[in-house]
Amino acid sequence: MAEAEPRREGAPGQKAAGTADAGLPVVVRAANEAALYRVARRRARKKVQRKERVDVRYSVAEKQAILAEARRLNLAGAHLVGAIVVAHLNGDLALPGQRTSHDDLIDELAALRTEVARIATNVNQIARKLNSGGHPQLGDTALLAEAGRVLVVARDAVMSIDVASDNAATSKAAA
Questions:
Q1: Which sign, positive or negative, has the C-alpha torsion 89, 35, 45, 62?
Q2: DSSP conformation class of 134
């Protein structure tokens, strides 16, 4: 995601990046970022138009609460009410397409994997530059050895994240 201006953390006269007005750090979760790009799922279209209808009356406060929740989930109010009723009739109180803790976990793991892969890419570029020839500098051998160790740790971390993501997705499908 491109930023409007380059970040200058620690520059004089600038407030620290990632801090709220109250001085508390702002936590940006990958799950929240991923939720912005998810599209609300609709019920599957039937070959024949749905013609049956049920009329329901709500108080002004109830209607406002329903519409607010529907907007939060990026759904139409009628779809929200219909999905809740059908879910209740089917014995499943979870809404179709509603984010669960599994979704958040999977998104967090995906973001973590991306960050670890970026670190490994950067270390690999450093190692490539050091191995490109020329006159070795004092400490290059130790730096290359450390880069190799970091790459092994990064590879292991990515493999562990992949296993955890697979387990989370499998347990979500089973739930």
A1: positive
A2: S
Full-model pTM: 0.46
Per-position b or e across 95-126, b if 16+ CB within 10 A of its CB: bebeeeeebbbbbbbebbbeebeebbeebeee
Q: What is the pLDDT of residues 10-37, one digit of tens each?
A: 444 545 444 445 566 666 566 555 544 3
DSSP letter at 4 equals S
**What CA–CA distance (Å, rounded) separates 98 from 113?**
24
If you search the block for the tokens 């509603």, which residue do you land on?
98
Question: Which CA distances in Å does 168 have to 31, 32, 54?
Answer: 14, 18, 38
Q: Tens of pLDDT along 50-70?
A: 778 888 899 999 999 989 988
Query: Which three-class secondary structure string do you get for 45-59?
Result: CCCCCCCCCCCCCCC
Q: Which residues of the chain have pLDDT under 50?
A: 1-3, 8-12, 14, 16-20, 35-42
**Alpha carbon distances (Å) from 155 to 53, 133, 141, 146, 152:** 56, 26, 21, 14, 5
Backbone φ and ψ of 7, nearest 5°? -80, 135
CA distance 57 to 129: 70
User: What are the DSSP E strand ranges found in the chain?
Assistant: none
Size of the chain in residues? 175
Q: What is the pLDDT of residue 172?
A: 72
